[in-house]
Design a protein that fits this description.
Chain lengths: 93, 485
């Protein structure tokens, strides 16, 4: 069972600020969804290799060649706040 | 028949015979949008000026005697999670409400290479999370067959736009059924190609091991033409695969003789609406009469696909969506005093409730102490599901099923219960877990609403699927029916 405290912890990890009502709703809904997922525990998967990716490709390499790149002005054009060509954020330390 | 009602291959013939101009086609489609968009609300952004400019450009090429590609001058709509250089790409999320990509997704570069006319960006569930477009941060798209019903999702805007003739074809993306389910609900053809067949570069990531771009079209021939344009290896996507097929239209043969088709019994359960079952059984009889060998098949782990999917997709999403922090693009809360508060406030105010729910679920299942019980377990179940398909494909060329357990549901019917909404994807998401191609094509109606027939194939067997779908379409009339709007 997920408790409200778990929900608060996970919200912090996911960088989400939840209000009291959201905490209650997500506690209930996450429990519902995970209860549904309990079904998986019925399967014996001791000797099964996990599939993280369906393709047989590994280590895709290519030549390290200089290509086109976005100029700074374009790359930072969407930033909510800028100073010159830098992205500006509130204080970090 | 108006120009906007026609298919891409019909319009291409008219264009190269100089019977109509691309500008006339584009104007016809925008007039149609003008007439019905208020009802369907399929689009988020329209790009009429650029579309007309592009169309005139195509007309100049044709006038100059240039041979133009099959999709040149054809008006196509793009799901709003595919990056379009200079055109807002929001993912139907308030956190990206003002995001203008400074580059094109590879599929957009390819469509531009074909001289396609882009009509605009279509509505969707926020970040492609949902089955109805009700999770759009902006508005809900209506099903053109019944405006009180959902068009399906997440690519509901693209499906509705094609069904309502507000474009000739469209692109969507499919992570657990997001092309096939809305295609079924709206009575159009939708294809999720094999994982790796189409470059994901510039597709805003939801669950990277499951996401794939694919087309919505009015018929199977147009589907093959769209695949020709978008498939192929891309050095910018290391998961894209080299593919030998140079022309999918070669597979458009009216012949299924000897084709072995399995119908997984787990998809035809007691729970299936009897009217739906009848429509699917009629389709099976049709294909058998045309010479296909249709038998009951089995995918024994089907019931575990949904819980596995709803652990894996949110886990990948929680990681992919970490980038929306209010720093480089999108929405930022400007009242925060420090950076952590800015992250938390921006994300909480920018994301809608389903997206937050999935970030929470994914973060939980990946967190210390639960990883093995949930995430890793689901990855192992994914192997079992793949093995089921591999085994079935030793015997069958294709698998066939309903695309959805029922026809389009009413707006608001499933919004309070996430598990019920997730059940909408029960027939489609195994295909994504296995990485195989799947398509939905119109196969009948229940109470006036379209029913989708799903075909599933081996990796890179899109050609075989097209052949079966084309044969079915040539011998039925379902794809020619259009909603009265």
């Amino acid at each position: 069972m997920i408790s409200k405290k778990d929900v608060e912890h996970v919200a912090l990890l996911g960088r989400l600020k939840l209000n009291e009502e959201e905490k209650e709703i997500y506690t209930k809904q996450l429990n519902d969804i995970l209860e549904h997922a309990e079904k998986l525990q019925k399967l014996d998967t001791k000797d099964v290799t996990p599939t993280a990716h369906v393709l047989p490709v590994k280590n895709v390499f290519r030549e390290d060649e200089v290509g086109d790149h976005l100029p700074n002005e374009k790359a930072t054009a969407n930033a909510p706040e800028k100073e010159g060509n830098y992205v500006k954020v509130p204080k970090i330390m | 028949m108006s120009l906007y009602q026609k298919t891409a291959h019909e319009l291409h013939q008219l264009l190269i015979n100089k019977e109509v101009s691309a500008e006339e086609i584009t104007n016809s489609v925008f007039n149609r949008i003008n007439d019905v968009e208020e009802k369907t609300k399929a689009y988020i952004t329209l790009t009429k000026e650029q579309a007309l400019e592009k169309a005139r450009n195509v007309d100049e090429k044709i006038a100059a005697g240039e041979k133009v590609p099959p999709l040149a001058g054809i008006p196509i709509a793009i799901k709003d999670n595919i990056c379009t250089n200079g055109v807002k790409t929001t993912c139907a999320s308030n956190i990206l409400y003002n995001f203008v990509p400074p580059y094109n997704a590879t599929v957009m570069e390819r469509l531009n290479g074909e001289n396609v006319v882009i009509t605009g960006k279509t509505n969707m569930d926020e970040f492609a999370m949902g089955s109805s477009t009700e999770n759009s941060g902006f508005h809900t798209t209506k099903n053109p067959w019944d405006l009180e019903r959902v068009p399906g999702g997440s690519s509901g805007g693209s499906a509705a736009a094609v069904a309502a003739d507000q474009c000739i074809a469209a692109l969507g993306s499919d992570t657990g059924g997001s092309i096939r389910q809305p295609a079924a609900f709206c009575g159009v053809v939708g294809m999720k190609p094999t994982y790796g067949a189409v470059s994901r570069y510039g597709l805003v990531a939801f669950a990277s091991s499951l996401d794939q771009i694919g087309p919505f079209t009015k018929d199977v021939t147009d589907c093959a033409m769209m695949l020709n344009a978008i498939c192929g290896h891309d050095p910018l996507d290391s998961t894209s695969v080299k593919n030998d097929v140079s022309d999918y239209t070669k597979f458009l043969q009216n012949d299924v003789k000897g084709l072995k088709i399995g119908v997984p019994k787990e998809y035809m359960t007691e729970d299936l609406d009897p009217k739906m079952r009848k429509v699917i059984e009629d389709a099976v009889v049709k294909l058998s009469n045309l010479g296909a060998v249709v038998e009951e098949a089995s995918l024994p782990h089907t019931e575990y696909a949904l819980p596995a999917y709803y652990l894996l997709a949110p886990a990948e999403a929680s990681s992919n969506l970490a980038r929306y922090d209010g720093v480089r693009y999108g929405y930022r809360n400007v009242d925060a005093d420090d950076i952590l508060e800015m992250f938390m406030k921006s994300r909480s105010e920018g994301f809608g409730s389903e997206v937050k729910r999935r970030i929470m679920l994914g973060t939980y299942s990946l967190s210390a102490g639960y990883y093995d019980e949930y995430y890793n377990k689901a990855l192992k179940v994914r192997t079992l599901i793949r093995n089921d398909f591999n085994k079935a494909f030793e015997k069958y060329d294709l698998l066939l099923s309903p695309t959805t357990p029922s026809t389009a549901f009413k707006i608001g019917e499933n919004t309070d219960d996430p598990v019920q909404m997730y059940l909408e994807d029960i027939f489609t998401l195994s295909v994504n877990l296995a990485g195989i191609p799947g398509m939905s094509l119109p196969c009948g109606f229940v109470d006036g609403m379209p029913v989708g027939l799903q075909l599933m194939g081996k990796p890179f067997s899109e050609g075989t699927m097209l052949r079966a779908a084309y044969t079915f379409e040539q011998n039925t009339e379902y794809n020619r029916q259009r909603p009265a709007l």
